[in-house]
Amino acid sequence: MSSEYVPVFLPHRESEVKETLKHFYPIIRGEKGLTKTVIYDGPTGTGKTAVAKRILLSLSEHASLGKFPPLTTSYVNAYELRSKFSVFRKIGEDVGLRFPRKGFSTHEVIAYTFQTLSRSGSNLVLVVDEADMLVRQKEGEEVLYVLTRVGELLSDVNVGIGLIVIFRDFQVSTESISNVGVRSSLSSTVIRFNPYSSKQLADILWYRVEKEGAMRPGAVGSEVIEMIANTFGYDHQRGGWGDARMALKTLYYAALRAENLGRGVVLPEDVREVLNQGILPTPFDEEEIEKLQLHEKILLLAITNILLMERDKAYVSIGDVEFEYEDLCNNYGIKPLKHTSIWERVQVLKNKGLIDTRVSSMDGKGRTTQIALPQVPEVEYLGINRVPLDVLKKVLQESIEEELRSAH
Ligand SMILES: Nc1ncnc2c1ncn2[C@@H]1O[C@H](COP(=O)(O)OP(=O)(O)OP(=O)(O)O)[C@@H](O)[C@H]1O
């Protein structure tokens, strides 16, 4: 049930898998000297990463059995690897090379990596996840530039590259790309991942329970599955999240509750309790929060603290957030970041779907950025619509303290 798990079965995403493979066919067949790019675009929890990772796993399994010409696969997460050097070092590692942190230039890492692939006659299928982060910086644009033009940039290299670039909001992200070459190389095939309907979420939950063996057979019934699927399913008229991650996490927490109470069966009551306490039906997934960098956690805690103090407000100003953030840094005994870095981190949190921002004009005083936490979806039959701020606060505090402890 972990977000990191790559499911074997991906119901309702068969056509996306098929379309990607069709596009990559020349690369899989061993053709050299070309890059085939596919863009995945869609909101959070719609299966983009799961599909991409499943494709990598299947391709590398087939290649290792000798069913295809040699093929290397690689996955990079642009959010976790924030520099051009780290991205290419990870690709190099997946190719089987080891680069120390110091001593190699980015260009050398790129050259060695692709020369090694070329010499071994292998093609590369690469996933670049969370690319929204990448294209915000010039360095990030360069990553895509290099990947789409390896053949031109390195004359002694002859490889075929299949590239999946994953965006949460492709249109908005590409507007910020300044390099015309990068922009045109991304104007290729775009596969759109739509939010899941209730019916689709129910299938996904059933597959996870029965086919992937996440739970003991009989531990969960259709009432529970439908309750969760209906809560998070997307509908054209009603809207909704359509997010499989939230649906799976809710089932997971409901099962944990049942287990803690010594019960072998998940009941609607467990689901209701999870939704009521707001343990998860928001993007505030503990696994996601753990992955944030220290200052992002502190910023999120600052936003949470202000919202807890001013419960009638939905939005807080970035100025207030900065004050609270500096106070927290002082309390934790660490140096706060400067204004522009804070701004960048706010964009990171926004990109991760952890906060919403809007720009408002303050009676002639100029424009200011306002920040909010996304709301829990309206769950009519439960009458809930609130963000679990105290839960979030506790998770953040524990995570920050743990990180500071382990740094000492
Ligand atoms: N069709 C599906 N079948 C089974 N599990 C799925 C399916 N779609 C998504 N999931 C599961 O839902 C969770 C979220 O999916 P995933 O991480 O792929 O979403 P995403 O679109 O990449 O989201 P994000 O933009 O937040 O990274 C994962 O645990 C994944 O395994």
Polypeptide structure, described:
This protein has 408 residues and is an alpha/beta fold. It folds into three domains: 14-192, P-loop containing nucleotide triphosphate hydrolases (Rossmann fold, 3-Layer(aba) Sandwich), CATH 3.40.50; 198-277, Helicase, Ruva Protein, domain 3, CATH 1.10.8; 286-407, Winged helix-like DNA-binding domain superfamily/Winged helix DNA-binding domain (Arc Repressor Mutant, subunit A). Helix content is 52%, strand content 11%. It contains 18 helices and eight strands. It has helices at 14-28, 48-64, 84-95, 106-120, 131-134, 138-148, 150-153, 170-175, 180-185, 198-211, 222-232, 244-260, 268-277, 286-291, 294-309, 318-332, 339-351, 389-407; strands spanning 35-41, 71-77, 123-129, 161-167, 189-192, 316-317, 356-361, 367-372. The chain has a five-stranded parallel β-sheet with strand order 2-3-4-1-5, with helices on both faces. The chain has a three-stranded antiparallel β-sheet with strand order 6-8-7. A hairpin with a 5-residue loop joins β7 and β8 (367-372). The two termini are 32 Å apart. The relative contact order is 0.10. Mean pLDDT is 87; it is low at 279-283 and 376-387. The chain binds adenosine-5'-triphosphate (ATP). Adenosine-5'-triphosphate binds at residues 3, 7, 10-13, 42, 44-50, 168, 193, 204, 207, 244-245, 248.
